[in-house]
Amino acid sequence: MKKNIHPDYHTISVVLTSGEKFETKSVYGKDGDTIHLDIDPLTHPAWTGAGRRLVDSAGQISKFNKRYSIKS
Questions:
Q1: What is the rounded CA–CA span in Å between residue 19 and residue 29?
Q2: Helices and strands of the chain, counted as H and E runs
Q3: CA atoms within 13 A on the CB side of 60
Q4: How far is residue 70 from each of residues 27, 60, 62, 66, 67, measured CA to CA in Å?
Q5: Using alpha carbons only, what angle is made at residue 50 by residues 42 and 35, rounded to the nearest 5 degrees?
Q6: What is the spatial distance between Cα 59 and Cα 53, in angstroms, rounded to a whole number?
Q7: What SS3 state is found at 72?
Q8: Can you give the pTM of this predicted structure?
């Protein structure tokens, strides 16, 4: 590797929305800095699966199924 072209890789603290803390390595900030997350895997629906529901506005799913259903 070339010298003096890579960012400084150091330890930082990460604080989740629940208050849980852990340390990781990063190029963010300076050694010992802290990141406070607003969205994390403990609360975001993309990871928790909460809030999943199928919204059928104006019967669009029914129209699709009727139009493209396989007829035998």
A1: 20
A2: 2, 3
A3: 4
A4: 54, 17, 14, 9, 9
A5: 25
A6: 15
A7: coil
A8: 0.57
Q: How far is CA 66 from CA 1, 59, 70, 71, in A?
A: 61, 11, 9, 10
Question: What string of pLDDT tens digits covers the 72 residues of the chain?
Answer: 788 898 889 999 999 988 999 999 999 999 999 999 888 887 777 777 776 666 667 778 788 888 888 665
d(CA 42, CA 47): 7
Rounded CA gap, 14 and 30, in Å?
13
